[in-house]
Design brief:
Two copies of one chain form a homodimer.
Chain A (H helix, E strand, L loop, with lengths): L4 E3 L4 H8 L7 H10 L1 E5 L4 E3 L7 E7 L2 E6 L5 E7 L4 E2 L10 E4 L3 E7 H10 L1 H25 L4 H15 L4 H8 L2 E4 L4 H8 L3 H13 L3 E5 L2 E4 L2 H7 L5 H6 L13
Antiparallel strand pairs in A: 1-2, 2-9, 3-8, 4-7, 4-9, 5-6, 5-8, 10-12, 11-12
Chain A binds a DNA duplex through helix 8.
DNA sequence: CGGCAAATTGAAGTATTTCAACGTCGGTGG
DNA sequence: CCACCGACGTTGAAATACTTCAATTTGCCG
Protein backbone atom coordinates (compact mmCIF):
# COMPACT_ATOMS: atom_id res chain seq x y z
CA UNK A 1 0.00 0.00 0.00
CA UNK A 2 3.04 2.24 0.32
CA UNK A 3 4.86 4.33 -2.23
CA UNK A 4 2.80 3.09 -5.14
CA UNK A 5 3.27 6.09 -7.33
CA UNK A 6 3.45 6.88 -10.96
CA UNK A 7 6.01 9.32 -12.20
CA UNK A 8 4.41 11.77 -14.56
CA UNK A 9 6.59 13.26 -17.23
CA UNK A 10 6.54 16.97 -18.00
CA UNK A 11 3.61 19.20 -17.06
CA UNK A 12 5.26 20.38 -13.83
CA UNK A 13 4.67 23.98 -14.71
CA UNK A 14 0.93 23.81 -15.12
CA UNK A 15 0.54 21.82 -11.93
CA UNK A 16 2.59 24.35 -10.00
CA UNK A 17 0.44 27.13 -11.34
CA UNK A 18 -2.65 25.52 -9.86
CA UNK A 19 -0.94 25.35 -6.51
CA UNK A 20 0.93 28.59 -6.09
CA UNK A 21 0.24 32.15 -7.19
CA UNK A 22 3.07 31.97 -9.67
CA UNK A 23 2.27 35.35 -11.12
CA UNK A 24 3.11 36.93 -7.78
CA UNK A 25 6.60 35.49 -7.91
CA UNK A 26 9.52 36.94 -9.81
CA UNK A 27 10.61 35.14 -12.93
CA UNK A 28 13.74 33.67 -11.38
CA UNK A 29 11.86 32.18 -8.46
CA UNK A 30 9.15 30.75 -10.66
CA UNK A 31 11.54 29.04 -13.00
CA UNK A 32 13.65 27.73 -10.12
CA UNK A 33 10.50 26.20 -8.67
CA UNK A 34 9.55 24.66 -11.96
CA UNK A 35 12.96 23.16 -12.34
CA UNK A 36 13.03 21.54 -8.92
CA UNK A 37 9.43 20.39 -9.10
CA UNK A 38 8.59 16.81 -9.84
CA UNK A 39 5.06 15.52 -10.21
CA UNK A 40 3.99 12.19 -8.84
CA UNK A 41 0.66 10.54 -8.98
CA UNK A 42 -0.67 8.31 -6.21
CA UNK A 43 -3.57 5.92 -6.13
CA UNK A 44 -6.18 6.29 -3.39
CA UNK A 45 -5.12 4.70 -0.11
CA UNK A 46 -1.38 5.14 -0.62
CA UNK A 47 0.86 6.18 2.24
CA UNK A 48 2.87 9.15 1.08
CA UNK A 49 4.66 9.96 4.31
CA UNK A 50 5.34 7.86 7.39
CA UNK A 51 5.42 9.59 10.76
CA UNK A 52 8.91 9.72 12.18
CA UNK A 53 10.58 8.93 8.91
CA UNK A 54 12.87 11.72 7.82
CA UNK A 55 11.83 13.35 4.59
CA UNK A 56 13.99 15.09 2.07
CA UNK A 57 11.03 16.60 0.32
CA UNK A 58 8.11 18.90 0.68
CA UNK A 59 5.00 18.59 -1.39
CA UNK A 60 2.05 20.56 -2.68
CA UNK A 61 -1.24 18.93 -3.50
CA UNK A 62 -1.92 19.47 -7.20
CA UNK A 63 -5.00 17.29 -7.26
CA UNK A 64 -6.86 15.05 -4.87
CA UNK A 65 -7.44 14.90 -1.14
CA UNK A 66 -5.08 13.47 1.47
CA UNK A 67 -5.37 12.63 5.16
CA UNK A 68 -2.92 13.65 7.86
CA UNK A 69 -3.25 11.11 10.63
CA UNK A 70 -1.68 9.88 13.80
CA UNK A 71 -1.75 6.31 14.95
CA UNK A 72 -2.35 6.13 18.67
CA UNK A 73 -0.84 3.62 21.05
CA UNK A 74 -3.95 1.50 21.19
CA UNK A 75 -3.97 1.25 17.42
CA UNK A 76 -6.74 3.76 16.95
CA UNK A 77 -6.08 6.25 14.23
CA UNK A 78 -6.93 9.87 14.43
CA UNK A 79 -7.07 12.23 11.50
CA UNK A 80 -5.73 15.67 12.33
CA UNK A 81 -6.66 17.26 9.07
CA UNK A 82 -7.29 16.90 5.38
CA UNK A 83 -5.14 18.29 2.60
CA UNK A 84 -6.79 19.78 -0.45
CA UNK A 85 -5.57 21.13 -3.73
CA UNK A 86 -3.04 23.87 -3.08
CA UNK A 87 -2.08 22.75 0.42
CA UNK A 88 1.53 22.25 1.33
CA UNK A 89 2.84 19.54 3.59
CA UNK A 90 6.11 18.22 4.89
CA UNK A 91 8.26 19.72 7.58
CA UNK A 92 9.96 22.93 6.65
CA UNK A 93 13.24 23.57 8.52
CA UNK A 94 12.63 20.65 10.76
CA UNK A 95 12.93 17.05 11.73
CA UNK A 96 10.85 14.05 10.75
CA UNK A 97 7.11 14.46 10.25
CA UNK A 98 4.78 13.96 13.18
CA UNK A 99 2.03 12.14 11.35
CA UNK A 100 1.35 9.92 8.38
CA UNK A 101 0.01 11.34 5.16
CA UNK A 102 -2.20 9.07 3.08
CA UNK A 103 -4.14 9.70 -0.07
CA UNK A 104 -7.91 9.63 0.32
CA UNK A 105 -8.45 9.93 -3.40
CA UNK A 106 -6.24 9.53 -6.42
CA UNK A 107 -3.81 12.42 -6.03
CA UNK A 108 -1.11 14.31 -7.88
CA UNK A 109 1.62 15.89 -5.83
CA UNK A 110 4.27 18.47 -6.69
CA UNK A 111 7.35 17.21 -4.94
CA UNK A 112 10.10 19.67 -4.10
CA UNK A 113 13.49 18.81 -2.64
CA UNK A 114 13.45 20.27 0.83
CA UNK A 115 16.95 21.70 0.93
CA UNK A 116 16.62 23.48 -2.39
CA UNK A 117 13.21 24.83 -1.51
CA UNK A 118 14.47 26.15 1.80
CA UNK A 119 17.40 27.78 0.06
CA UNK A 120 15.05 29.37 -2.43
CA UNK A 121 12.94 30.69 0.44
CA UNK A 122 15.92 32.63 1.73
CA UNK A 123 16.60 34.08 -1.69
CA UNK A 124 13.08 35.01 -2.60
CA UNK A 125 11.16 37.13 -0.09
CA UNK A 126 8.09 36.82 -2.31
CA UNK A 127 8.05 33.05 -2.05
CA UNK A 128 8.78 33.33 1.63
CA UNK A 129 5.76 35.53 2.04
CA UNK A 130 3.55 33.16 0.09
CA UNK A 131 4.62 30.31 2.33
CA UNK A 132 4.14 32.33 5.48
CA UNK A 133 0.65 33.35 4.47
CA UNK A 134 -0.12 29.75 3.72
CA UNK A 135 1.04 28.78 7.20
CA UNK A 136 -1.08 31.47 8.79
CA UNK A 137 -4.02 30.20 6.83
CA UNK A 138 -3.34 26.63 7.93
CA UNK A 139 -3.34 27.81 11.52
CA UNK A 140 -6.72 29.45 11.07
CA UNK A 141 -8.11 26.28 9.61
CA UNK A 142 -6.66 24.15 12.37
CA UNK A 143 -8.41 26.40 14.88
CA UNK A 144 -11.63 26.09 12.96
CA UNK A 145 -11.27 22.36 13.25
CA UNK A 146 -10.89 22.75 16.98
CA UNK A 147 -14.24 24.49 17.14
CA UNK A 148 -15.86 21.83 15.02
CA UNK A 149 -14.39 18.84 16.78
CA UNK A 150 -15.00 20.19 20.26
CA UNK A 151 -18.72 20.26 19.63
CA UNK A 152 -20.59 18.16 22.11
CA UNK A 153 -23.01 16.59 19.69
CA UNK A 154 -21.88 14.50 16.76
CA UNK A 155 -24.44 15.93 14.38
CA UNK A 156 -23.00 19.38 15.07
CA UNK A 157 -19.50 18.15 14.29
CA UNK A 158 -20.66 16.59 11.08
CA UNK A 159 -22.45 19.80 10.14
CA UNK A 160 -19.22 21.70 10.76
CA UNK A 161 -17.31 19.27 8.60
CA UNK A 162 -19.77 19.69 5.75
CA UNK A 163 -19.56 23.44 5.98
CA UNK A 164 -15.78 23.39 5.85
CA UNK A 165 -15.91 20.95 2.98
CA UNK A 166 -18.19 23.29 1.04
CA UNK A 167 -15.82 26.11 1.79
CA UNK A 168 -12.83 24.29 0.38
CA UNK A 169 -14.16 22.44 -2.58
CA UNK A 170 -13.31 23.82 -6.02
CA UNK A 171 -16.98 23.97 -6.89
CA UNK A 172 -17.53 26.28 -3.92
CA UNK A 173 -21.00 25.20 -2.96
CA UNK A 174 -21.57 27.96 -0.45
CA UNK A 175 -22.63 30.65 -2.86
CA UNK A 176 -24.75 28.59 -5.18
CA UNK A 177 -26.54 26.94 -2.29
CA UNK A 178 -27.73 30.20 -0.82
CA UNK A 179 -29.56 31.07 -4.00
CA UNK A 180 -30.36 27.84 -5.78
CA UNK A 181 -30.95 25.84 -2.63
CA UNK A 182 -29.43 22.52 -3.58
CA UNK A 183 -25.80 21.78 -4.18
CA UNK A 184 -24.34 18.36 -4.50
CA UNK A 185 -21.39 17.62 -2.31
CA UNK A 186 -18.99 14.74 -2.73
CA UNK A 187 -17.87 13.28 0.57
CA UNK A 188 -14.24 12.60 -0.24
CA UNK A 189 -13.58 10.16 2.59
CA UNK A 190 -15.21 7.03 3.89
CA UNK A 191 -17.28 6.84 7.07
CA UNK A 192 -14.43 5.24 8.98
CA UNK A 193 -12.19 8.18 8.20
CA UNK A 194 -14.93 10.62 8.99
CA UNK A 195 -15.31 8.90 12.34
CA UNK A 196 -11.57 9.19 12.99
CA UNK A 197 -11.65 12.80 11.94
CA UNK A 198 -14.54 13.75 14.18
CA UNK A 199 -13.46 11.60 17.10
CA UNK A 200 -16.30 9.13 17.08
CA UNK A 201 -17.49 5.82 15.49
CA UNK A 202 -18.90 4.94 12.11
CA UNK A 203 -22.29 4.11 13.54
CA UNK A 204 -22.60 7.54 15.09
CA UNK A 205 -21.56 9.16 11.84
CA UNK A 206 -24.20 7.25 9.99
CA UNK A 207 -26.87 8.25 12.47
CA UNK A 208 -25.71 11.86 12.37
CA UNK A 209 -26.02 11.92 8.58
CA UNK A 210 -29.55 10.67 8.79
CA UNK A 211 -30.35 13.10 11.57
CA UNK A 212 -29.22 16.03 9.41
CA UNK A 213 -31.27 14.60 6.58
CA UNK A 214 -34.32 14.30 8.79
CA UNK A 215 -33.79 17.88 9.93
CA UNK A 216 -33.98 18.95 6.29
CA UNK A 217 -30.45 20.33 6.19
CA UNK A 218 -29.11 17.82 3.70
CA UNK A 219 -30.32 15.07 1.40
CA UNK A 220 -28.47 11.79 1.23
CA UNK A 221 -28.25 10.64 -2.36
CA UNK A 222 -25.55 8.06 -1.85
CA UNK A 223 -23.33 7.41 1.14
CA UNK A 224 -20.64 9.49 -0.53
CA UNK A 225 -22.87 12.05 -2.21
CA UNK A 226 -25.19 14.39 -0.38
CA UNK A 227 -27.00 17.54 -1.39
CA UNK A 228 -26.79 20.56 0.85
CA UNK A 229 -30.25 22.02 1.36
CA UNK A 230 -29.41 24.70 3.89
CA UNK A 231 -25.81 25.68 4.33
CA UNK A 232 -26.71 28.45 6.77
CA UNK A 233 -28.59 25.95 8.85
CA UNK A 234 -25.60 23.64 8.85
CA UNK A 235 -23.38 26.47 9.92
CA UNK A 236 -25.69 27.32 12.80
CA UNK A 237 -25.91 23.69 13.82
CA UNK A 238 -22.13 23.69 13.95
CA UNK A 239 -22.00 26.62 16.34
CA UNK A 240 -22.03 29.39 13.83
CA UNK A 241 -18.63 30.97 13.88
CA UNK A 242 -16.45 29.20 11.39
CA UNK A 243 -13.97 31.49 9.74
CA UNK A 244 -13.75 29.25 6.71
CA UNK A 245 -17.45 29.62 6.17
CA UNK A 246 -17.42 33.37 6.33
CA UNK A 247 -14.58 33.49 3.88
CA UNK A 248 -16.24 31.00 1.56
CA UNK A 249 -19.51 32.87 1.51
CA UNK A 250 -17.63 35.91 0.33
CA UNK A 251 -18.10 37.86 3.52
CA UNK A 252 -15.75 40.77 3.84
CA UNK A 253 -14.95 41.09 7.50
CA UNK A 254 -15.14 44.83 7.97
CA UNK A 255 -12.82 46.44 10.47
CA UNK A 256 -15.29 47.91 12.90
CA UNK A 257 -13.01 50.44 14.45
CA UNK A 258 -9.34 50.69 15.10
CA UNK A 259 -8.44 48.76 18.20
CA UNK A 260 -5.50 49.20 20.44
CA UNK A 261 -3.56 46.43 22.07
CA UNK B 1 -12.87 44.74 31.95
CA UNK B 2 -11.29 45.92 28.74
CA UNK B 3 -7.98 47.57 28.07
CA UNK B 4 -7.11 47.95 31.72
CA UNK B 5 -3.38 47.99 31.28
CA UNK B 6 -0.42 49.48 32.97
CA UNK B 7 2.34 50.95 30.87
CA UNK B 8 5.67 49.75 32.12
CA UNK B 9 8.63 51.99 31.55
CA UNK B 10 11.96 50.67 30.27
CA UNK B 11 12.90 47.02 30.53
CA UNK B 12 11.75 46.23 27.02
CA UNK B 13 15.05 44.62 26.19
CA UNK B 14 15.05 42.04 28.93
CA UNK B 15 11.44 41.13 28.24
CA UNK B 16 12.19 40.64 24.56
CA UNK B 17 15.08 38.40 25.41
CA UNK B 18 12.76 36.07 27.31
CA UNK B 19 10.54 35.87 24.29
CA UNK B 20 12.80 35.66 21.28
CA UNK B 21 16.19 34.09 20.69
CA UNK B 22 17.79 37.51 20.43
CA UNK B 23 21.25 36.07 20.19
CA UNK B 24 20.31 34.43 16.89
CA UNK B 25 19.44 37.78 15.40
CA UNK B 26 21.87 40.29 13.96
CA UNK B 27 22.58 43.38 15.98
CA UNK B 28 20.59 45.69 13.73
CA UNK B 29 17.47 43.54 13.92
CA UNK B 30 17.72 43.13 17.65
CA UNK B 31 18.04 46.81 18.33
CA UNK B 32 15.24 47.65 15.89
CA UNK B 33 13.02 45.23 17.77
CA UNK B 34 13.96 46.73 21.08
CA UNK B 35 13.19 50.18 19.85
CA UNK B 36 9.74 49.35 18.55
CA UNK B 37 8.85 47.18 21.51
CA UNK B 38 6.59 48.50 24.21
CA UNK B 39 5.71 46.54 27.34
CA UNK B 40 2.25 46.56 28.80
CA UNK B 41 0.95 44.81 31.83
CA UNK B 42 -2.60 43.48 32.09
CA UNK B 43 -4.59 42.31 35.08
CA UNK B 44 -6.21 38.87 34.95
CA UNK B 45 -9.49 38.85 33.07
CA UNK B 46 -8.68 41.72 30.75
CA UNK B 47 -9.67 41.63 27.09
CA UNK B 48 -6.58 42.38 25.06
CA UNK B 49 -7.98 41.85 21.59
CA UNK B 50 -11.55 41.85 20.33
CA UNK B 51 -12.43 39.55 17.43
CA UNK B 52 -13.10 41.47 14.27
CA UNK B 53 -11.51 44.65 15.52
CA UNK B 54 -8.59 45.65 13.36
CA UNK B 55 -5.28 45.68 15.17
CA UNK B 56 -2.25 47.74 14.45
CA UNK B 57 -0.09 45.64 16.67
CA UNK B 58 1.32 42.22 17.25
CA UNK B 59 2.29 40.97 20.65
CA UNK B 60 4.51 38.47 22.37
CA UNK B 61 3.68 37.08 25.77
CA UNK B 62 6.47 38.05 28.14
CA UNK B 63 4.73 36.72 31.24
CA UNK B 64 1.39 35.16 32.09
CA UNK B 65 -1.19 33.04 30.31
CA UNK B 66 -3.86 34.23 27.91
CA UNK B 67 -6.91 32.64 26.30
CA UNK B 68 -7.80 32.78 22.61
CA UNK B 69 -11.55 32.35 22.39
CA UNK B 70 -14.47 32.57 20.06
CA UNK B 71 -17.92 33.57 21.13
CA UNK B 72 -20.52 31.43 19.40
CA UNK B 73 -23.91 32.55 18.20
CA UNK B 74 -25.72 31.04 21.14
CA UNK B 75 -23.48 32.94 23.54
CA UNK B 76 -21.36 29.92 24.37
CA UNK B 77 -17.68 30.61 24.39
CA UNK B 78 -15.10 28.27 23.09
CA UNK B 79 -11.42 28.52 23.82
CA UNK B 80 -9.27 27.62 20.80
CA UNK B 81 -5.98 27.76 22.61
CA UNK B 82 -3.90 29.19 25.38
CA UNK B 83 -0.95 31.52 24.98
CA UNK B 84 2.10 31.05 27.15
CA UNK B 85 5.32 32.90 27.65
CA UNK B 86 7.08 33.32 24.33
CA UNK B 87 3.99 32.90 22.17
CA UNK B 88 3.17 35.43 19.53
CA UNK B 89 -0.31 36.56 18.64
CA UNK B 90 -2.02 39.03 16.37
CA UNK B 91 -2.53 38.75 12.65
CA UNK B 92 0.57 39.05 10.57
CA UNK B 93 -0.05 40.38 7.04
CA UNK B 94 -3.72 40.15 7.49
CA UNK B 95 -7.08 41.50 8.43
CA UNK B 96 -8.82 41.71 11.79
CA UNK B 97 -8.32 38.93 14.32
CA UNK B 98 -10.71 35.99 14.32
CA UNK B 99 -11.02 35.57 18.06
CA UNK B 100 -10.79 37.43 21.33
CA UNK B 101 -7.68 37.31 23.44
CA UNK B 102 -8.14 37.61 27.19
CA UNK B 103 -5.69 37.35 30.02
CA UNK B 104 -6.15 34.33 32.26
CA UNK B 105 -3.50 35.52 34.68
CA UNK B 106 -1.73 38.80 35.24
CA UNK B 107 0.29 39.20 32.06
CA UNK B 108 3.03 41.28 30.51
CA UNK B 109 3.01 41.70 26.77
CA UNK B 110 5.62 42.97 24.32
CA UNK B 111 3.65 45.07 21.90
CA UNK B 112 5.08 45.66 18.45
CA UNK B 113 3.61 47.93 15.78
CA UNK B 114 2.47 45.62 13.06
CA UNK B 115 3.61 47.60 10.04
CA UNK B 116 7.09 48.15 11.39
CA UNK B 117 7.43 44.54 12.41
CA UNK B 118 6.33 43.34 8.99
CA UNK B 119 8.81 45.69 7.36
CA UNK B 120 11.54 44.37 9.61
CA UNK B 121 10.61 40.82 8.62
CA UNK B 122 11.36 41.64 5.01
CA UNK B 123 14.70 43.13 5.90
CA UNK B 124 15.87 40.45 8.27
CA UNK B 125 15.78 36.87 7.01
CA UNK B 126 16.88 35.71 10.45
CA UNK B 127 13.85 37.24 12.12
CA UNK B 128 11.68 35.93 9.34
CA UNK B 129 12.97 32.47 10.01
CA UNK B 130 12.36 32.75 13.73
CA UNK B 131 8.78 33.78 13.06
CA UNK B 132 8.25 31.02 10.54
CA UNK B 133 9.55 28.41 12.92
CA UNK B 134 7.26 29.76 15.57
CA UNK B 135 4.31 29.43 13.21
CA UNK B 136 5.25 25.86 12.37
CA UNK B 137 5.43 25.13 16.05
CA UNK B 138 2.03 26.71 16.64
CA UNK B 139 0.61 24.47 13.94
CA UNK B 140 2.02 21.39 15.63
CA UNK B 141 0.51 22.42 18.88
CA UNK B 142 -2.86 23.16 17.32
CA UNK B 143 -2.83 19.64 15.90
CA UNK B 144 -1.93 18.25 19.29
CA UNK B 145 -4.97 20.04 20.65
CA UNK B 146 -7.05 18.38 18.00
CA UNK B 147 -5.96 14.98 19.24
CA UNK B 148 -6.66 15.93 22.83
CA UNK B 149 -10.03 17.52 22.23
CA UNK B 150 -11.27 14.80 19.91
CA UNK B 151 -10.91 12.22 22.65
CA UNK B 152 -14.19 10.55 23.39
CA UNK B 153 -13.90 10.49 27.14
CA UNK B 154 -13.59 13.65 29.15
CA UNK B 155 -11.02 12.25 31.57
CA UNK B 156 -8.79 11.53 28.58
CA UNK B 157 -9.13 15.10 27.34
CA UNK B 158 -8.29 16.44 30.77
CA UNK B 159 -5.28 14.14 30.96
CA UNK B 160 -4.14 15.49 27.61
CA UNK B 161 -4.55 19.02 28.82
CA UNK B 162 -2.48 18.35 31.91
CA UNK B 163 0.28 16.75 29.86
CA UNK B 164 0.43 19.71 27.53
CA UNK B 165 0.39 22.06 30.48
CA UNK B 166 3.34 20.23 32.01
CA UNK B 167 5.13 20.41 28.69
CA UNK B 168 4.76 24.16 28.43
CA UNK B 169 5.20 25.37 31.96
CA UNK B 170 8.51 27.05 32.78
CA UNK B 171 9.06 24.61 35.62
CA UNK B 172 8.90 21.76 33.11
CA UNK B 173 7.30 19.13 35.27
CA UNK B 174 7.77 16.30 32.82
CA UNK B 175 11.34 15.46 33.68
CA UNK B 176 11.19 15.86 37.42
CA UNK B 177 8.00 13.84 37.63
CA UNK B 178 9.47 10.80 35.99
CA UNK B 179 12.14 10.52 38.63
CA UNK B 180 10.83 12.20 41.76
CA UNK B 181 7.24 11.19 41.19
CA UNK B 182 5.38 14.26 42.39
CA UNK B 183 5.31 17.64 40.73
CA UNK B 184 2.93 20.37 41.63
CA UNK B 185 1.05 21.89 38.77
CA UNK B 186 -0.84 25.16 38.84
CA UNK B 187 -4.03 25.05 36.85
CA UNK B 188 -3.93 28.50 35.29
CA UNK B 189 -7.58 28.72 34.32
CA UNK B 190 -10.87 28.22 36.09
CA UNK B 191 -13.12 25.19 35.61
CA UNK B 192 -15.47 27.13 33.37
CA UNK B 193 -12.63 27.95 31.01
CA UNK B 194 -11.36 24.40 31.13
CA UNK B 195 -14.84 23.25 30.17
CA UNK B 196 -14.89 25.67 27.24
CA UNK B 197 -11.45 24.54 26.21
CA UNK B 198 -12.26 20.84 26.29
CA UNK B 199 -15.73 21.21 24.87
CA UNK B 200 -17.71 20.09 27.88
CA UNK B 201 -19.28 21.37 31.13
CA UNK B 202 -17.88 22.33 34.50
CA UNK B 203 -19.52 19.40 36.22
CA UNK B 204 -17.87 16.92 33.88
CA UNK B 205 -14.52 18.61 34.40
CA UNK B 206 -14.91 18.30 38.12
CA UNK B 207 -15.79 14.64 37.86
CA UNK B 208 -12.90 14.01 35.48
CA UNK B 209 -10.44 15.59 37.93
CA UNK B 210 -11.64 13.33 40.67
CA UNK B 211 -11.58 10.32 38.37
CA UNK B 212 -7.91 10.97 37.56
CA UNK B 213 -7.26 11.38 41.25
CA UNK B 214 -9.01 8.11 42.05
CA UNK B 215 -6.95 6.43 39.32
CA UNK B 216 -3.80 7.57 41.10
CA UNK B 217 -2.59 9.73 38.24
CA UNK B 218 -2.88 13.03 40.07
CA UNK B 219 -3.54 14.40 43.52
CA UNK B 220 -5.91 17.30 43.97
CA UNK B 221 -4.49 19.69 46.55
CA UNK B 222 -6.70 22.62 45.74
CA UNK B 223 -9.07 23.16 42.82
CA UNK B 224 -6.32 25.13 41.11
CA UNK B 225 -3.35 23.12 42.34
CA UNK B 226 -2.77 19.46 41.60
CA UNK B 227 0.23 17.20 41.89
CA UNK B 228 1.12 14.97 38.98
CA UNK B 229 1.84 11.47 40.20
CA UNK B 230 2.28 9.72 36.88
CA UNK B 231 2.87 11.84 33.82
CA UNK B 232 3.38 8.76 31.65
CA UNK B 233 0.08 7.42 32.80
CA UNK B 234 -1.61 10.69 31.96
CA UNK B 235 -0.05 10.64 28.55
CA UNK B 236 -1.33 7.13 27.93
CA UNK B 237 -4.77 8.03 29.17
CA UNK B 238 -4.74 10.86 26.64
CA UNK B 239 -4.04 8.52 23.76
CA UNK B 240 -0.28 8.50 23.96
CA UNK B 241 0.98 10.37 20.97
CA UNK B 242 1.31 14.02 21.89
CA UNK B 243 4.20 15.70 20.17
CA UNK B 244 4.45 18.30 22.89
CA UNK B 245 4.96 15.58 25.43
CA UNK B 246 7.72 13.90 23.53
CA UNK B 247 9.50 17.18 23.09
CA UNK B 248 9.04 18.13 26.72
CA UNK B 249 10.38 14.86 28.00
CA UNK B 250 13.55 15.51 26.03
CA UNK B 251 12.95 12.76 23.53
CA UNK B 252 15.03 13.11 20.42
CA UNK B 253 12.95 11.81 17.58
CA UNK B 254 15.49 9.77 15.63
CA UNK B 255 15.18 9.56 11.90
CA UNK B 256 14.61 5.86 11.41
CA UNK B 257 15.63 5.69 7.80
CA UNK B 258 15.56 8.03 4.90
CA UNK B 259 12.14 8.09 3.35
CA UNK B 260 11.14 9.03 -0.10
CA UNK B 261 8.04 10.94 -1.05
C1' DC C 1 -24.37 -15.43 -8.59
C1' DG C 2 -21.47 -15.38 -4.55
C1' DG C 3 -18.35 -12.82 -1.67
C1' DC C 4 -16.63 -8.84 0.38
C1' DA C 5 -16.39 -4.21 2.14
C1' DA C 6 -18.94 -0.29 3.49
C1' DA C 7 -23.07 1.50 5.42
C1' DT C 8 -27.05 1.09 8.11
C1' DT C 9 -30.17 -0.34 11.85
C1' DG C 10 -31.42 -2.16 16.45
C1' DA C 11 -30.84 -2.84 21.31
C1' DA C 12 -28.30 -2.83 25.56
C1' DG C 13 -24.64 -0.61 28.18
C1' DT C 14 -21.90 3.44 29.36
C1' DA C 15 -20.70 8.27 29.54
C1' DT C 16 -22.07 12.86 29.54
C1' DT C 17 -25.44 16.54 30.07
C1' DT C 18 -28.75 18.80 32.59
C1' DC C 19 -31.02 20.50 36.56
C1' DA C 20 -30.87 21.07 41.27
C1' DA C 21 -28.75 21.41 45.66
C1' DC C 22 -24.95 21.97 48.68
C1' DG C 23 -20.17 23.42 50.38
C1' DT C 24 -16.28 26.52 50.48
C1' DC C 25 -13.91 30.65 50.16
C1' DG C 26 -13.23 35.62 50.14
C1' DG C 27 -15.08 40.04 50.33
C1' DT C 28 -18.60 43.48 51.97
C1' DG C 29 -21.06 45.83 55.13
C1' DG C 30 -23.66 45.96 59.33
C1' DC D 1 -16.42 40.42 64.55
C1' DC D 2 -19.76 38.06 62.19
C1' DA D 3 -23.67 37.50 58.96
C1' DC D 4 -24.50 37.68 54.28
C1' DC D 5 -23.60 37.31 49.50
C1' DG D 6 -21.67 35.89 45.17
C1' DA D 7 -18.36 33.17 42.61
C1' DC D 8 -16.66 28.82 42.18
C1' DG D 9 -16.37 23.99 42.82
C1' DT D 10 -18.48 19.70 43.99
C1' DT D 11 -22.07 16.14 44.33
C1' DG D 12 -26.46 13.65 43.22
C1' DA D 13 -30.11 11.90 40.20
C1' DA D 14 -32.74 11.78 36.02
C1' DA D 15 -32.59 12.57 31.01
C1' DT D 16 -29.99 12.30 26.92
C1' DA D 17 -26.39 11.01 23.71
C1' DC D 18 -22.98 8.10 22.43
C1' DT D 19 -20.64 3.51 22.24
C1' DT D 20 -20.63 -1.22 21.70
C1' DC D 21 -21.99 -5.48 19.86
C1' DA D 22 -24.79 -7.92 16.76
C1' DA D 23 -27.39 -8.36 12.74
C1' DT D 24 -28.81 -6.79 8.27
C1' DT D 25 -28.64 -4.26 3.97
C1' DT D 26 -26.41 -2.25 0.05
C1' DG D 27 -23.38 -1.89 -3.71
C1' DC D 28 -19.46 -3.44 -6.10
C1' DC D 29 -16.31 -6.72 -8.21
C1' DG D 30 -14.73 -11.07 -9.61
Amino acid sequence: MTQRATEVSGAGASALRRVLPMDQLPEATASALQQMCRIRSFAAGATVVHAGEMQNSLAFVARGILRMQKTLQDGRQHIVGLLFEGDMFGRLFDGPPLFDVETATHSDLCILPRARFEALLLESPELDQVVMRSLLHDLDRARDWLLVVANGKIAARLAGFLVMLCARLPSGCASSASEAGLTELDIPIARVDLANLLGTRVESISRAFHALDAAGLIEIHRPDLVAVRDIEGLHEEAGGDLTSFRIASGERLPPTRTGRV
